[in-house]
Design brief:
The chain is an alpha/beta fold. Helix content is 38%, strand content 16%. The chain has 3 domains: 2-136 and 265-375 and 469-485, 3-Layer(aba) Sandwich (Rossmann fold); 139-261, no CATH class; 378-445, no CATH class. The longest helix is centred in the middle third of the chain and has 23 residues, at 246-268. Bound molecules: guanosine-5'-triphosphate and magnesium ion.
Length: 486
């Protein structure tokens, strides 16, 4: 008799656990963006806000008190580095410094205990994956032969301002005979000069975004391996290349790059995501000028295409259903007065409208937001003569320069970063003269100047817990996970 009761109890528990699993789903949220876009700060602020009860009025589940607790838990993947949340919080809060650049994939698991709208206790497991946007821009290589990639990369490098930065590499390229014998030293030099060109394009006065192959700029432990020692050649035919030629060698290594770097990323990480936020530093591109902004537009189109082709291929049919929501977020909006936040949103919308329309047809929900994961500035109005000018107050880092002043890293100053246009089309004139950036003029002559400022002093919430101030982080959260907390 006792045994029977015990069995019924065990069966009931197993049934309850099975049910619980059904009702306690997991979301794998990808957080990506090109280097310096704000991925690490975004995740740190999001997790800090959820675990410490930040002020998130637009994040309905938290604002209405349905979230009982959010806590960190061991991550599911043993081979992926853990996102160093504690270290990043220490940097922000204790040192008032931004977290160091990460350049690697990392992961963090957050378990959110909440009450559903009909009163049941539930759990949502949120796996957050931080990965470089440069890896996404490699995905199109999977569908491209070496010859096509070489031709496209060369064509791009012949456009200004890239052409000016590619001179040394182009000069070396002219000395190479693709049909000649394979030559390790020639490959090493070509790869080095090609990488130098990519690095120069990324420099903040040019701020180009479209720079594949991604690992050339962040090789990590793969530095100097053959899979990273290739470059485009000037080819006349489409192949096949003569046996043992330089061309054959470059082509083999390009294929190795796809095998060793791109395919594993697709399989192990990209294909497993449920939701995605793409962080975009549009302000860095505006600092640099119209060319950088157009380049960013091109790169964003390719990023969104990755999510689309993800759905249309045979592989995607097997993986379906996958990414059903993508949030495009312009970061660091605290560099602008709030009157410009909607304009920044409109600029990002304008840059992604074509790609977005395609994705929406494929059934993915897309939203665009301008946010600051950590708000490092305040707003003020400054009187200049008879005019009242809206400005922002912040503490620029030691060494930042503006109008002949060099800042000391301690003093708060008023900044006028420049007005964003009402109509985003004004920034995208076809002749490249829509506005002036660092690519073409001195910092004094540029239309926009966004200085790096230090993180803020901490605010304290009503309950006495310190919280990081933010702009629209709650709106981002509501879009990304709000529907799963109902
Ligand atoms: N004012 C302000 N600055 C920010 C914010 N988020 C990021 N930044 C700035 O942008 C820099 C880069 O942010 P990260 O979060 O490290 O960017 P990332 O995308 O992780 O960069 P990598 O790890 O290098 O790929 C920081 O050092 C800050 O200077 C923000 O919300 N407000
Ligand atoms: Mg990072």
């Amino acid at each position: 008799m006792i045994e029977l009761i015990e069995q019924i109890r065990l069966a009931a528990r197993a049934f309850a656990e099975f049910g619980a699993h059904l009702f306690d789903p997991t979301i794998r949220l990808g957080v990506t963006g090109l280097s310096n876009a704000g991925k690490t700060v975004f995740i740190t602020a999001l997790v800090h806000g959820l675990t410490r009860g930040g002020r998130f009025p637009l994040f309905e589940a938290l604002a209405t008190g349905r979230i009982a607790r959010a806590s960190l838990a061991p991550q599911p993947d043993d081979a992926v580095p853990r996102f160093d949340h504690e270290g990043h919080v220490r940097a922000l809060v204790e040192r008032r410094d931004w977290p160091a650049s990460t350049r690697q994939i990392s992961e963090l698991r957050l378990v959110i205990a909440f009450q559903s709208l009909n009163g049941h206790q539930r759990k949502l497991t949120l796996d957050i994956v931080d990965y470089p946007g440069e890896w996404l821009l490699d995905l199109p290589l999977l569908g491209k032969s070496y010859e096509t990639w070489a031709a496209e990369s060369l064509a791009l490098s012949r456009q200004e301002p890239r052409a000016g930065l590619a001179k040394e590499w182009h000069a070396h390229l002219a000395t190479l005979d693709p049909a000649g014998a394979e030559d390790e030293q020639a490959a090493v030099i070509a790869a080095r000069l090609f990488t130098d060109y990519l690095k120069a394009c990324r420099d903040k006065s040019y701020a180009m975004s479209l720079l594949p192959p991604g690992r050339f700029l962040m090789p990590g432990e793969m530095a100097n391996s053959p899979a990273l020692t290739f470059a485009p050649l000037v080819l006349t035919g489409v192949g096949p290349p003569p046996p043992n030629s330089l061309w054959a060698m470059m082509r083999r290594r390009y294929e190795a790059y796809k095998d060793v770097v791109v395919r594993p990323f697709f399989r192990d990480h990209f294909a497993r995501l449920d939701r995605q936020i793409v962080l975009v530093d549009a302000l860095a591109a505006m600092n640099a000028g119209p060319d950088a902004l157009r380049d960013l537009e091109l790169a964003l189109g390719q990023v969104l295409d990755c999510f689309n082709t993800g759905r249309n291929t045979l592989v995607s049919a097997l993986l379906y259903p996958r990414i059903d929501r993508i949030l495009l977020a312009a970061t660091k909006a605290d560099h602008l007065h709030h009157t410009s936040h909607d304009r920044l949103e409109a600029i990002l919308k304008r840059m992604t409208e074509r790609a977005t329309a395609k994705a929406e047809i494929a059934g993915t929900k897309i939203d665009v937001v301008a946010l600051a994961a950590v708000r490092a500035t305040r707003e003020a109005t400054v009187r200049v003569g008879r005019e009242q000018l809206p400005c922002i107050l912040g503490v620029p880092f030691a060494g930042e320069v503006m109008g002949g002043d060099t800042f000391d890293g301690e003093t708060e100053v008023a900044m006028f970063p420049g007005d964003l246009p009402d109509n985003p089309d004004d920034l995208f004139g076809s002749d490249g003269s829509a506005f002036r950036g660092l690519t073409s003029v001195s910092p004094q002559g540029a239309d926009f100047r966004f200085l790096r400022v230090r993180p803020p002093r901490l605010e304290t919430t009503e309950t006495g817990v310190p919280a990081l101030p933010h702009i629209r982080l709650d709106r981002a959260l509501q879009f990304l996970i709000g529907d799963r907390l109902q």
